[in-house]
Design a protein that fits this description.
It is built from six helices and seven strands. By secondary structure, the protein is of the alpha+beta class. A seven-stranded antiparallel β-sheet has the order 1-2-3-4-7-6-5, covered by helices on one side. The chain is globular, with a radius of gyration of 18 Å.
Length: 179
């Protein structure tokens, strides 16, 4: 009976991991801007605070599609003009990279481009929720703050290389995975 229970538990764990793994794979080559928007919203949906998308902006020269989310508690009036450091600390910024012709205006943009999750910036509690739900399901809140192994997901055979780290203003997730 113990063996049957162990097999069921193992199957549940594997199924949960595979579901996250599929999204990690998709984040390496997102088909279009609409799907990138859906993924950004899905990532933010697991945080402890309710967020709303306040802007999505594509920069051709930088090759970045940026999403910025603010807690629902912050009104549009509060976010007008210069944002305070206290307000900035509450925001979540998600960047997807895409084809970048750089400064060369003669280089044609391909007809079909794909987006790749590049970086997420926010507070540690919010980033940890994203990390645990989508990248390292076994992560523990306290340990992950200081343990390099807990902050890194690297699988060379699957071309996955994602890690989180503390910055001067909060925490970041960086995706170095190859397509």
């Amino acid at each position: 009976m113990k063996i049957v229970g162990l097999i069921i538990a193992l199957l549940c764990f594997t199924t949960g991991y595979n579901q996250n793994y599929k999204l990690i794979e998709e984040m390496k080559h997102v088909a279009n801007k609409d799907r990138a928007t859906e993924i950004a919203k899905e990532l933010v949906s697991v945080t402890s605070v309710k967020y709303r998308l306040i802007f999505a902006k594509e920069s051709q020269n930088a090759g970045i599609l940026r999403f910025r989310f603010a807690p629902e508690e912050l009104s549009d009036i509060q976010l007008e003009g210069k944002i305070t450091e206290e307000q900035r600390a509450k925001l979540i910024t998600i960047d997807f990279s895409f084809f970048n012709a750089g400064e060369d205006s003669k280089v044609e943009r391909p007809a079909f481009i794909t987006y790749k999750l590049n970086e997420i910036n926010c507070s540690y509690p919010e980033l940890f929720a994203i990390w645990k739900n989508f990248f390292k399901t076994g992560a523990e809140f306290e340990i992950t703050q200081t343990d390099f192994k807990s902050q890194h997901l690297k699988e060379p055979e699957n071309k996955i290389d994602v890690y989180i780290f503390q910055t001067e203003t909060g925490w970041s997730l960086r995706n170095l995975s190859l397509n």
